[in-house]
Amino acid sequence: MKQYYTLSGNKVIYNIIDIIIQQFNICGMGNEGVVYKEGERVLKVYHPRILKDRLDLDTAIKLRKIQTDRIIFPGNDDDSLLLDENRNLVAYKSIYIRNLGIKYLLEWDICHLKKEAKILRNDIKILSENNVRTDDFHFGNFSFNKGIYFIDPGSFEFINNSSKDFIYKDNMFRFNRWLLYEIIYGGKYYFTHNKREAKATAMNVYNRYSKSDYPDVVEFIDKEIKEKTLAKYLIK
Questions:
Q1: Which label site among 34, 37, 52, 185 has the fewest CB atoms less than 10 Å from its CB?
Q2: Residues 178, 181, 184, 185: what is their CA dihedral angle, to the nearest 10 degrees?
């Protein structure tokens, strides 16, 4: 049996049957913990070993007050933040976004990809305006469905001794590299299954952006990719 507590002090109990069912509903795992699907939500349970950059209770409470479109934070239900007897955050629940994979994104109309990039950029702006810095952009933290969703908030930090403009530039630097380099790499690798070729293609495209006058990758994609889909851009 596993027992947790909500912020309001209510008990949340998982009996042996619940725990067995969880094993058939694992939808992700990593260094921080294991993610289980629970209906329309997911439950992320942290490993007992505490990592330095994992989400803490104070940060989680603040994050879920921020309204974003594609960056997914813990929910606002009473059982969304689960604590141990010492009121440490040991698990949380958020909405479930089924990941259809890079193949799905490659087949999007390019206008939809550009639209999604702009929505994510706006979410980054919202984070920065709330003094939030993140460096957790990597492929495993994203789901591709009807949009591009940042689903696994790990390394988020509230910075109060820097300007919002500085935080935005810092966040966008990381976001730019992820959006261009990792998506191009992932897409090229999907077609070639050749890591060296995928890396060379991604670096070539990213270097073109770096040497350009575009303020961010979103503008680069908007102006430079003329093909109907990202797939056609990568196999031309």
A1: 52
A2: -100
